Amino acid sequence: MKKLVLSLATTVALALTGSAQAQSKYPEKPITMIVPFAAGGPTDIIARIVGENMSKTLGQQVVIENVAGAGGTTGITRALTATPDGYTIAMGHLGTFSAAPATYPGLKYDPINGMQPIGLAGGTPILIVARKNFEPKDLKEFVAYVKTNTDKVNEAHAGVGSVSWTTCTLLKGQLGVPKLNAVAYRGTGPALNDLVSGQIDFMCDQIVSVAEQVKADTIKAYAIASTERSPALPNVPTTKEAGLPEYQIEAWNGIAAPKGTPKEVVDRLVDALDKALKDEGVKKRLLDLGTVMPSAEERTPAGFGALIKRDADKLSPTLAAAPK
Amino acid sequence: MSEMIAHLQLGFGVALSLQNIALAFAGCLVGTLIGVLPGVGPIATIAMLLPITFGLDPVGALIMLAGIYYGAQYGGSTTAILVNIPGEATAVVTTLDGHQMAKQGRAGVALGTAALGSFFAGCVATLIIAALGAPLTKLALLFGPAEYFSLMVMGLCFAVVLARGSILKAFCMIMLGLLLSTIGTDLETGQERMTFGFPPLSDGIDFAVLAMGVFGFAEVLRNLENPETRDVVRAKIGRLLPDWNDIKQSFLPVVRGTAIGGILGILPGNGAVLGPFASYTIEKKIAKDPSRFGRGAIEGVAGPESANNAGAQTAFIPLLTLGIPPNAVMALMVGAMTIHGIIPGPQVMTKNPELFWGMIASMWIGNLMLLIINLPLVGVWVKLLQVPYRLMFPAILIFCCIGIYSVNNQPVDVAFTALFGLFGYILIKLGFEPAPMLLGFVLGKLMEEKLRQALIISRGSFMTFIERPISGGLLAVAVIILVVALLPSISQKRDEVFTE
Questions:
Q1: Tally of domains in chain A
Q2: Nearest beta carbon to residue A45 from set B268, B339, B445
């Protein structure tokens, strides 16, 4: 009996030290977080803010590597085809995880079945904005105007596959004007320039890019495509309030790893992300950007995976049918 | 006026704090170094240094990052002059006469002129931003797609004038550049064009890859073939600083270059790249003896170098006053500001005056520092020419490779650069100039984008380019340039002058 207790105790002790060892083993070296866009963009900023704090929890540096190209699919492809050991992860967004399968027919990764989601880092509300002197005064007038003046209205976006293109294509699909005149720009900056100067009529874009222009009254915002108003722009109504309740879309950013990443590694990453999002400093910086903090559910792999699937289902039909 | 002085006082108060002076110095020094290293550009460097600035206050961080940017403009001319490699699109023109000057043993004078011209341009540009920043933003807003397209057409007409040797060959190279620029994903439809299903081509060819290939690698290959040409450079280093005569010759070009570069720098969509080209064209046009250009004319260094530095600084105007970045480096600055909790927009000037005026004041301080860093270094840089080939060439190649890799973190880019190196070597052997090709390439992307945007907005009517006054005016200038270049009598003279 004594022997049995002893051996049991040893086994338990061994098991404990064993699991403790497994936990302390990862991470042994810096972790690369691939951001599939140029440094300085909205996804990059969120990755840097969150990554810096995750480094503290993980005890290893989270290094941001910008691998831009093909609407972010180049970088995500590289991250998801890496060895699934937790040392290569990616910060992707609505476009690369939910919209890409419908936008890029030859896509080399499967965000629904071939990827290990970690968690959502933050949601970025989408605004419908227009040039200052565009006739429609509110969202209802805008909807009516766009439907009756399809030959006159010009929409701007930052290129096929971009967030502005994805979200505006959804809007045009829902309004029944999929062929509305679309002017493509290389990036949000030049598109915004032409919106401020009145060359084009309207665009859909992330709050972080347009909020300061709306505040300064150089452009006007019709609505925010979220369920709640943003503290950054409290005067802008939601699409629900303004009469277009079905237009609900958020440009979120989240972390994923290659499929087959060991569970304990995934748990460590989920925990580090959660701690980062609970940190007051991180929270303040993200909120200043107009970010919506993810719910407890969305911070888990299952919750984030569900979000990816939900938005993919919402976007796929319109995107696949969109004139490209 | 008194308001401006009060603002500048506030600015210098911020910029002259010990910490900010140190940061400006660090930024300028790093900028100069990466500018000198071929291939490592300010975009990659600022992206890499972004995390380091997390611990700093926003003003200090931005002062340092801005220092890197304009420091790189100073340093970039060094490589262009000494080893004929333009690190940035804006330094392409400097290679034409700057490197010729170096070959004639006047490397020191070329570097000195570039530094002094840049300093003058930097000082003037700082004053322009301080005095006229806010009203000038209207200029950026006047330029829609149609105006921009016409400006690019004008730029291409410049390219014809820019050419050395046969005009037909120059024309072919411009066309080749335009064609190369169309490789990649179609902006409007997302379809891939001329990529042969090869994924690395789906975003087109990067400027750095093409420039490092046809200039950097090809130059190394060519020098390996006949080492004796560079022995001349090694033999006589010559005077290090421009003398009174050089200064007299370059003063007006510097003033004109500053004005042209300053205005073009404000335009959205990287208008600054046109500055040096425009300045070079004008200097060549009004010179008494245009045949000296391309053979070491000091005006061909002084004008464009001032233009690119003035443009580099006025490019901050749309960012600081509108919150809209005019080029890739400025887009990165937006990111830097955002990370530090300052979201760029039209209200930065009123909401963060210490940031706005502090940065402007730091630009002047930075320019002074760059002059102090660079002038004593001229001698050191020139001595680099004495480094034996067996050490210098591998070093150039390694730095080019590191630089290329750092742009996108893609190994395939390095392979492409090597390929373009071979291609550039063939071009040199056949007597084609790579500079017009690079200009065609740089302008091609923008031109196509703006042409299509303008036509979509006008519903396909080409009249939009003539009906809009600014666009029409720019096209008229383009036509005049072409007529002057092609008029039979002048053309005959041109052929005498240009065909070697």
A1: 2
A2: B339
- In B, minimum Cα distance to A63 occurs at B51
- Same-domain check for residues A49 and A118: yes
Joined tokens for residue B395: 């070093």
B408 and chain A: CB distance < 8 Å anywhere? Answer: yes
Q: Angle at CA B353, nearest 5°, toward B17 and A214?
A: 145
Domain boundary among A175, A209, A242: A242
Question: A60 in a domain, yes or no?
Answer: yes
B331 to chain A: nearest residue by CA?
Answer: A40
Helix axes B2-15, B353-384, angle to 10 degrees: 60
What is d(CA B261, CA B273) in angstroms, rounded to the nearest whole number? 9
Q: Are residues A237 and A162 in the same domain?
A: yes
- Domain containing residue A193: CATH number: 3.40.190.10
Query: Which chain A residues are within 8 Å of B339, Cβ to Cβ?
Result: 45, 48-49, 285
Tell me which DSSP letter residue A32 carries: E
Mean pLDDT score of chain B, rounded to an integer? 83
Region A25-41: mean pLDDT is: 88
pLDDT in tens, B411-441: 888 999 999 999 999 998 998 888 888 888 8
For an interface test with A, which of B142, B327, B338 has the most A Cβ atoms less than 10 Å from its Cβ?
A: B338
Chain-chain contact of B141 with A193 (C-beta, under 8 angstroms)? yes
Give the residue-averaged pLDDT of B370-380: 83
What is the signed CA dihedral for B456, B457, B458, B459, rounded to 10 degrees? Answer: 40
Task: Please list the alpha-helical segments (H only) found in B163-272.
Answer: 167-181, 207-211, 218-225, 228-235, 244-266
Residue A11 lies in a domain: no
CATH number at residue A93: 3.40.190.150
Cα(A127)–Cα(A239) distance, integer angstroms: 9
Residue A159 lies in a domain: yes
In whole angstroms, what is the distance from residue B408 CA to residue B336 CA? 19
pLDDT at residue B28, as a whole number: 92
- Do residues A145 and A232 both lie within one domain? yes
The 3-state DSSP composition of chain B as helix, strand, coil percent (nearest 5) reads: 80, 0, 20
Terminal Cα-to-Cα distance of chain B (whole angstroms):
54
- Nearest-Å Rg of the Cα atoms of chain B is 22
pTM equals 0.82
Residue A186: which of B354, B190, B25, B431 has the closest Cα? B190
The pair of three-digit structure tokens given for residue A50, joined into one six-digit string: 């969150």
Q: End of a domain among A218, A242, A266? A: A242
Q: Does residue A13 sit within a domain? A: no
Ramachandran angles phi, psi of B192, nearest 5°: -85, 135
Distance in angstroms (rounded) separating the CA atoms of residues B498 and B500: 6
Residues A166 and A236 in one domain: yes
Residues A223 and A301 in one domain: no
E-only strand ranges, A225-297: 253-258
Task: Find residues 89-118 of chain A whose CB sits inside 8 Å of chain B.
Answer: 103
**Residue A65 phi, psi (nearest 5):** -120, 120
- A263-268, long-range: CB < 8 A, 24+ apart: A264/A22, A264/A23, A264/A26, A265/A26, A265/A85, A265/A86, A266/A86, A266/A116, A266/A118, A266/A301, A268/A23, A268/A26, A268/A27, A268/A58, A268/A86
B188 vs A contacts (CB less than 8 Å):
160, 182, 184
Q: Which helix (H) or strand (E) holds A235?
A: none
Q: Chain A: give the shortest CA distance to residue B106, in Å.
A: 40
Residues A271, A102: Cα–Cα separation, whole Å: 32
Identify whether residues A52 and A98 lie together within a single domain: yes
- Inter-chain Cβ pairs, chain A and chain B, closer than 8 A: 145
Of chain A, the percentage scoring pLDDT greater than 70 comes to 92
Which residue, among B441, B401, B374, B386, has the nearest Cα to B37 in the 3D structure?
Answer: B401
Instruction: Quote the CA–CA distance of B102 and B115 in Å, as a whole number.
Output: 15
Query: Which residue range is the domain that position A171 belongs to?
Result: 126-242
